[in-house]
Write a structure and sequence with these properties.
3-stranded parallel β-sheet; Rossmann fold; binds adenosine-5'-triphosphate; mainly alpha; binds magnesium ion; Tyrosyl-Transfer RNA Synthetase; 2 domains; 352 residues; single chain
């Protein structure tokens, strides 16, 4: 069986380092591993509109921003198909059929959707489209016959929902859809990177992000203001490394060699953490290391972005071509789905 990747992001803002460690960095590794037959990377604009219906201009503006982020981290349009969800009408049709296979109470149990509803203060006024977006994600994944979906931990409930739909569909209509597997980051700190304010998740909607395109001055400012340990008042006080954002980010980005290069008194990160816990290590020092490490990672991304920004028509062409390729793949799956459902009245299994 072919190995196929599908994953994506909502174009609701520039991408941040949470996306990077949760999914983007992995995508680039998988792309460069040469082990995958096809790689589809989607800008989920239709999904973004489910909670931004009154602000289409925001989504429109961010289409190019996210594409710039993709290309500047190293996604290569010669290998990976970069496309825009709304340009693939077939995805909506698939979602419409899948809706018959999912109950309202099942959707209500989705923990990620529950949290997002609270976060957006939707409560009683949830747009139907938003409520059903896990079904639309199932159509995105299955339309491309994805076997592997590299995402952050918040997406696990969507994958479970997709697998249920696939099984139910295949059960009723015969084997047609492919069951995907989630691919989570292997480093615990990357599963769900917290925000710089210490909140559970770095998220565009929470405004607690470090963006991939962050300029050096803003980056330094954000690291300076970063949430650490409120009980660690003086350098000599014992401190907590758990729940301390600086250490979580160091876990996600920093190698032992980098620690040792800046502070030769530590062999690696664990020794530095032990010192912090015991007392005697100040936040200035931990933040200095973090800033250096982040700057090292982000500088080349920033530089590539600046180059790409000079040729926006090229970026748009990548998305246009990618959407064409993606549409063909989705159309093929849709025709198989219609066939299995016996609603291709005038095609292969025509009436009469
Ligand atoms: P929004 O607030 O618009 O939902 P978001 O910041 O949550 O934006 P998404 O576009 O919903 O970002 O997520 C895209 C991908 O990035 C998903 O695979 C998701 O799991 C991953 N991701 C997002 N935020 C984080 C994070 N803080 N840590 C790890 N992975 C993340
Ligand atoms: Mg999200």
């Amino acid at each position: 069986m072919s190995k196929i990747i599908l994953t994506g992001d909502r174009p609701t803002g520039r991408l941040h380092i949470g996306h990077y460690v949760g999914s983007l960095r992995r995508r680039v590794q998988l792309q460069n591993s040469g082990e995958y037959d096809k790689i589809f990377i989607m800008e989920a604009d239709a999904q973004a509109l489910t909670d931004n219906a009154d602000n289409p201009e925001k989504i429109r503006q961010n289409i190019v921003e996210v594409a710039l982020d993709y290309l500047s981290v190293g996604l290569d349009p010669k290998v990976s198909t970069l496309f825009i969800q709304s340009q693939i009408a077939e995805l909506t049709e698939l979602a419409f059929y899948y809706m018959n296979l999912v109950t309202v109470s099942r959707l209500q149990r989705n923990p990620t959707v529950k949290t997002e509803i609270k976060m957006r203060n939707f409560e009683a006024n949830i747009p139907v489209g938003f409520f059903t977006y896990p079904i639309s994600q199932a159509s995105d994944i299955t339309a491309f016959k994805a076997t592997t979906v590299p995402v952050g931990e918040d997406q696990a409930p969507m994958l479970e929902q997709t697998i249920e739909i696939v099984r139910r569909f295949n059960n009723i209509y015969g084997p047609t859809l492919v069951e995907p597997k989630i691919l989570l980051p292997d480093n615990a700190a990357c599963l769900r990177l917290p925000g710089i304010d210490g909140k559970a998740k770095m998220s565009k909607s929470l405004g607690n992000c470090i963006y991939l395109s962050e300029d050096p001055k803003d980056l330094a400012q954000k690291v300076r203001e970063m949430y650490t340990d409120p009980t660690h008042l003086r350098v000599e006080d014992p401190g907590h490394t758990e729940g301390n954002v600086v250490f979580t980010y160091l876990d996600a980005f920093c190698s032992d060699e980098q620690v040792n290069a800046m502070f030769p008194e530590y062999a690696g990160l664990e020794e530095m953490k032990a010192h912090y816990r015991k007392g005697g290590l100040g936040d200035m020092k931990t933040k200095k290391l973090l800033l250096a490490v982040l700057e090292e990672e982000l500088a080349p991304i920033r530089a590539r972005r600046a180059e790409l920004q000079k040729d926006i028509p090229y970026v748009l062409e990548v998305l246009r071509k990618g959407s064409e390729v993606a549409r063909e793949a989705a159309a093929q799956t849709l025709s198989e789905v219609r066939h299995s459902m016996r609603i291709d009245y005038f095609g292969d299994s025509k009436l009469g």
